[in-house]
Structure formats: structure tokens, C-alpha cells
Amino acid sequence: MTRTISFTLNGEQVAAEIKPHHNLVEVLQREFNLMGARESCGQGMCGCCTVLVNGAAVSGCLYLAAFVDGAEVRTVESLADARTQALSPVQEAFIEAGAFQCGYCTPGFLLMATQLLEAYPDPDEEQIRHYLSGNLCRCAAYPEIIAAVKLAARRRKANSVG
Amino acid sequence: MATSSGQVGTPKDAKVGGAKVGSQIGRSLPRLEGRDKVTGRAEYTHTMRLPGMLYAKIFRSTVAHGRIKSIDTSAAKRVPGVYRIITAEDIRTVIPAPYYGPAFHDQPILAVDKVHFVGEPVAVALAADPHVAEEAAQLIVAEYEELPAVFDEVEAAANNTLVHEELKPAGTFADLKHLKGRKGTNVALDFKLRRGDVDKAFAAAAHVFEHTFHTQKVLHLALEPFASIADWNERGVTIYSGSQGPSFVRTEIARLLGWPENRVRIKVPYLGGGFGAKLYIKMEALATALSMIVRRPVKVALTMEEQFYTITRHPSTFVIKTGVDASGRITARKCEVYWNGGAYADVGPRVTQKSGFTASGPYDIDNVWVDSYALYTNLPPAGALRGFGIPQLVWAYESHTDMIARALKLDPLEFRRKNLLREGRPQATGQIVRDAKLDAVLERVAERLNWGKPLARGNGALRRGRGIAVAIKAVISPTTSVANLTIAADGSTTLYCGTVDMGQGSDTAMAQIAGEVLDVPAESVRIVPRDTDVTPYDMGTLGSRSLFHMGHAVRLAAEEAREKIKAMAREVGEPEGSNIPLPDLFKKKFGMQAGNIVGTGTYKPDYVPPDPATGLTDKVTPFWMCAASGAEVEVDTETGHVRITRLITAVDCGRPVNPKIVETQISGAVLMQLGFTMFEKMHIDAGQVTNASLADYKIPAILDVPQAMENETVDSHLSTGPFGAKGVGETATFCVSPAIANAIEDACGVRLTALPLTPEAVFRALRAQANKPLADDA
Fold it and tell me: Is residue B187 part of a domain?
């Protein structure tokens, strides 16, 4: 029943023994001790389990681990600099803007915000709201999340100019 | 950046006299745990694992009320990899009386003989692989002899169908003693308040109004579902749990095991939201019993669906009657409130009593009558949810207040101003109101709404209106907090307090309070994670009590440490007012980097229990929480859709310790209550929740945030608070619902008396108003 998959995880080549019914979140947690992607609703409605597979955001609680065989997987743990542990501009902005309370949903918002800024470096508020509308925050830190994304956009722009 | 890294610094410059580093109170310091939360490293119970751990999956009741005839576990036991199937019979071999609860010992760890609601835990499958446990749980079969069930709180009050045969109060609360052993009733608490003579006042009143309001069943829906892991052996038990009240869990597990408290250890990682759900016993007793049976660590981690069967907010029915004299003064108010507590009392009796103190609202009324009933029904249990019942009451009394003003053709703001409870006047319980900025919150919202000025009313099908509401809450009392604080020989500070940071930012606030007293930067104060082996007693992180109660305990602990530092300086011969750095002071005293200074603080406010016959007392609460909200809405009269164009909230939280965190607490509370106001509702059919998932039960998302949401704190200083502060977690929830309903009536003339204010509800009301009711309303 088990099979071995190999994939790139946050820049490193890895392999894991999985069963066909294992989802990506449980494999990341159990095999790699990456706890940033978390199951919450179990239905792909909340975004707490967001993982990037080949650059596209997926709901890790619904995405079968078998599907990442040969793929490139990125989790929230990849956002900070691997060597220096320096936070990314989006992570810094989330802290400064107070864009989370309990923090359970935060990894999903961080990955989506990072992806948003890669696609649209200078988003307006409507773009931010629509891009993040698939992620839920029960603490409702939404106004601060919007402010954090705007702050991160300004920082990225300043960095690229500088 | 040091302030946001979560790193613990060593304040080398900390000195006896205290080099002033600038006030810590009033700093908008980013959360100390920020780095853990943005790197995915913050640990939550739901993702924790212990070596050798088994996973438990719960088999739940499919009937609302019934006698268990049989439980067939044979197919479940045959699933390859299943470790064991557990029923109440097994639980009783390790815990003979397996009942728990904060007010009543009424809730069994697994159903014993009877089930009392759909979704009640009946049996458990254990396996090392959670998928195996889940498959096995699905193969358990139970047969029930169905019994009559009651779901509505008002019907339950008639006692024709009984949920429990006998009441079993926990003995913790004096005012529940008279209910011990009572039979033939669903009433788990009947709180009475009697002030003046309402009957006489109604007879003399120029106008008398009576309305009935309803609230629906809603869910906390923390994104981290309930999870507990228990690791038991003969010497002791360690429980990892996402709990808002580790001290309570410790006491209750010790009672269930017949052990002293020091053999029970509760460790609390970060909580992925709480909102009142993760209080008292939730999964802890089950995990403990399972670990005792199998002698291995056991994890009980629920799914989102299972949260709908665990704890909810009370639905309520509120019959409110008010007498008004010819001048527009309210002379009498009678409140009958029915709280639908579901099958187990949880903290419902507390909600019933504590909210009852202010059921008549933030008004100065000579004659008040309150009857508040906690009722058992055959629904999933209800407990505290960000407001301890107050949002349900405010929904009713502020809708009612608006309806009276409109009926009397009085300006709703003027009517409120005229009757508002003012500083120095007695509240309904008899306590004199001090440091309650009711007038300020109301006036600020009115000003922001441009109340006196005309509003563009819209045209065609789109009609615009505005509404306002104001509220008061008595914080839960009496409760105790204890804090310990140590200073190491290098001058660094460590704080031990049981307040659980579930997202509200309490760690940061407590560090600011300790830092203020000791004149060190808050970010240099280390907060020890909650662990009952080291963090002292705290009643619980609930009811906006922590900043006040624990804040005082932390202040006292830090003050004691400061005095000990001064004493040490005198002892080693330092002159009065010496500025010797702490590392040098310790070295002078101990000859090397050695020793500790330990400060401790305990805080419990004065409280006089209400007179059982009248509910009156002059010391009911250590502080008052005050809020006002205003809304501008646009109603599409062709569809019933309501767009909130402005939502304004002003709160009195005393002096904000951390203004940025206060701001996020206010907006978070407003948005949560916006969900409860506009769309959230647990749909229930014959006791079965039919929308128990995030696919079918919607919570506010980023697109639901009103384009214009304005929040503020009014200038305030609580003279009895730590550095002037009050709690703030709940305050902004109070007024959102009635402000919006009042705005809807202002916009299109229809009055809704039940939540939520869905387009369907508005549309039906519009059709009824136009004398063209929908067929099923006719």
C-alpha cells in the first residue's frame, strides 16, 4: 500500500513513504516536522493548510501527498531566509501591522500575500481583498492584514529601487 | 528588529533606582510572540505529537434524547490496526463517577445509559494511525430507545419534557445549592432581580411597551479545533491542551481522579482562537480517561464538524416590557430572559446570572424586574462566547429602546440621553456607577454619525438609514489571579502567569505592566508558557477579566520584587536612591552571578453576593465595560440585501495598555459580532445540526469587512485598574446587532426581532409591511 514519493521541499530534494490516502498536510507534519500548514476546516474553505505546489496555492488538507511526486513544494517555513533566518518583507509587515492574533491562519495568509505581491507588486485594496478572500481569520485581523500587505508592497518597492 | 523578534534580552542597564526607559504603558508594542507566528513555528495542541501516542476518534449520538439499548463494536474491533474501542463502561473502570462541569456535574465523559443531544460522544476508537481510528469509529453501531426531546428554551421552561431526571449542582456556587437533587425541572438557574415596584410603575406609566426578541445558535468556530493530549501514569498525569483555563482543568481533573492537584499538570501551547469555547473541561477528561485505560499518551483532536457538537452560544428569548412617563423618562422595565443551555449546563448558569445584572440596560430606572432562566434542552451545550450573554441582551434592549423612541416620536439619541445611567447613580443591582463612560461612548458615536444632520435617504429601491445603540456590562466577579515574577542575577525578569494568550495579546500587555513597574523594556521580560507546574493559579482567561485581575497580580508581583531589590541594596550598604546596576548588586550580595529575587502578587476584588430574594448588592463588579455602536446601511428593498456603509464603535476600556492591540481587539470583536448579526446561524432540524461545516456555516471573510469601519477608545482612566486599564476583549461586540437593526428600520421601516438579519428576513418583513406576505408567512 505504501509508496515512495520524492519532491523538492523548500529548496531541498526529499523523499517520503506515503499511503495513497495521505494528504499533503499530514505528510509535511509527520515526515518533515513542518507544522506551519495546519488542518482546520478539512474542506478547503479556510486556507489554514495553504501550501504552494509548483508555485500554485493548494489546500494541503485536500491535496493528496501522492500528487506532489516530482513537484516543487513551498511552505511558510521557506519565507524566512534559510541561512540568516531574516524574515521576509511580508513577514516583517505582518508583525509590524499586527496582522494576526492567534496566528493559526497566519501561514496561509503569508503565502497568499507573498504570491499576490509576486504577481502584482503594487496592489490596490480591492485586489488585496479579492486575492485573500479565500483565507479565513476568525480573529478577524482583516484590516491589519490589508495594511500589512500594503506595507510589504512599499517595502519591496523601496528595496528593489534601492 | 528586537521588538518583534520574540527574543528575550538582558537589560544590563536595569538599576536599583531604575534608569527610566520610558513608560511601558501606552506603547503600541508589536506582539512579543510575533516571530513564532509568522514563521509557522508557533506550537498548537492540534499539531502536537508524543512518542507512542494513540489517536482517539469519537462515535457520536444520532438521536437527540434516548436510552442506549446497545453499542455494537464488533465490526470496529475487526479493523486492522485498531487498538481498542472504549465505551462509558470502560471509562467507569478508571473513573467511577465520570461527570464534570463548572456549575453542574452533569456531563459524562462518554454517554452513560442515555444520550441527551445529537452529536454527544458515545464511544471512542483508538489507534496509532488516525485514519484507522476514524474508520473504526464509523463502524460502531448503537441502538437507542428514543425519548421525547425539547429544543426550544421557552417550551423547556414549561417542564413538560425533561432533559435530566435530577439536577446535580457542582457545589462551587452558593446560589446553585437550592437546586441540588431537584427533579421535574429543566431550569438550571433562576436569577431574580427586584428593584422598586414595577407593577405600580406600569400602572402609573403614560406608555407601556412590550416586545419579544430572539437570538440564534451560533458557534465560536476557533480555527484550531479542540485538542487535548493526556499522558497518564500512577505518579501523575500531564495534559497538553488548548485551554483558556488551565487552573480549572487541573482542579477538575484532580477531582475526577481523586488526586491532589499537584499530581495533575496542564501545559498550554498557543491557542488557535478560543472566544470562550476552550474553557472548563472540553476534551481533557476524555483524553485522561483514555490514557488511564490504555496507559499510553492519547490525543483527542476534533474536526471542524465536531466543534458544532461541543460548545455553542446560547440562543435566547427575551420578553421585555417598559413603562415611560409623559416626559419620556423610563420608569419601569421588566425583563424575562430564557437561555437555551442545551443538554449540559457548562457555564450557562453563570451566563444567566451575571448577564442578568445588566439585563435592563445602561439606563437609570427606578423599578426593575429581571427573571433570567438557564434551561436545559436537547441541543448541543451552550457556554460563554465573547460577551457572557451580553450581546444577546443588548440586541433585545437596544432594539426595544429604539422601537419605543420611534413609537413616541422621540429622537432615539435624545431618548437614550435622557435615560442614560450617569456617573454616581445606582445601577439596577444597587452598585453606584463609577468610571463608566457611557455618555462619552454614546456621544462619540453620535458625533461620528453626524446624528443631528440629515442623511441622504437614497432613491428608488435603495433606501438608506442609520442606527445607534449603547450598552453596559458588569465584569464577572469575584475571581482570583496570582502571578510570580523572578529577577535573575543578571537583572533579567521572568514572569509566571496563567493568563492564556489565545490571540488577544495578553503576554505583551503583561510584559508591559511588569516592565512599567520595574523600569525595564517590556520586550526584555520573559513570559513563561502556561504550565500549572510552574504558573500559579488563575481563574481563567475569560470575560475580559485578565488585564484587570492578572494585570493587578503582575503589578503586585513586580512591586514586591522592586521592594526586595531596594532591601537588598540597603543590605549591602548602598546609599538610599542608589543607581547600582542589578548585576553589580547581585554580585555584591552573593559574591558572583547568583541568586534570585522573587516577587508574588495575588488579586481578588471585593464582592458582595446578590441578595437571593432581590438580586441586589452594592458590590457586584470591580468595573463596568461600556460600548456604543452606530451603523449606516443601504437596504435594497427589492432583494432585502443590506449593505453596511459605515460601522462605528466606541468603547471605554480605561487607559489602553497597548493601543495597537486594543484597536485589533475592537475591530476583531466588531467583525465577529457582524457575522453573528448578518448571517451566522446553526440550522437545526429535530436536534440535528444541518450545517455543521465551514462550507455551510459562513463566517466573516475579508470581503465582509465594511468599507468604512471606524473604531475608537474614549478618554478614560479606571481609578481602581492597573495603570487605569479595563479589559476590552468583549466590549466591542455588544452593540453591533441592534445598531444595524435600528439602521434597517430607519432605512426602510421594517423591524426585525430575530437574528440573523439575512436578506431573506429583511425581504419577508418588507413584503409583510407591504401587505403582500410571502405564502409561507401569510
Answer: no
